[in-house]
Amino acid sequence: FAGNRPSREAYLAIDKLYSGFVYSTVSGARLRPKTPGGSSKEEEDVYTVVELLDAAAMLNQLEALYDLPISQFLPLEACDSEARQLKRLWDLSALIDSFMIPSHSQNWREVDLPALRQRVDELIGQVQEAVKGAPIDWPIVTGLESAVRDLSISLMLMQAFKDPSIRERHWKHLARTTSALIESDGEPTFAEMLRLKLHLHVEEIQAIVARARKEAVIEETLVLTDSVW
Fold first, then answer.
1. What tens digit of pLDDT does each residue of 139-193 get?
2. Which pick of 37, 103, 178, 202 has the fewest CB atoms within 10 Å?
């Protein structure tokens, strides 16, 4: 999604937070956990959420053992909850990408667009549920919501453009509308159709399809009239 970190980078960041692994400040390569007294120039001290939660649990056990007031670690618990939710959101992002990829190289007319849109609409519900309680300023939140919504709209418009009344002139009109180069002598792939960002031109594309259908009716009428005369 535009403006969001790539999934791999996001997963590495979450992994760093939880696993205790550190990363090279130069190459970003994953390194072994830092050991006490470690002196590698590429290592850095890291306290993971898991380590802090374990330490907090141990402290609470000692407090209970000595009948002391039990300490609360609300910021740490909030961090743990947010990190887990962030991981779920990126899992959903990866799921959306993975089920779309197999269709990318196909001729767009061969893709089962209604079935694909039904799956996307199901994902919209999953996204709405997954983002509940998440900070609204997380880019992954706005990115997921807009991605599935825009994808559903684009699939709807692609299906509309499969109308048999669509002619080459309508493809040229679509190219002008989307400011894209569309080869009129070949069929674009599904990925190429997605790159047109049809969701940004809903009214214009619906108008093209409506005009094409009216023109088809006129053409049929002219053919019938010509055959009668």
1. 888 888 898 999 999 999 999 999 999 999 999 999 999 998 776 456 899 999 9
2. 37
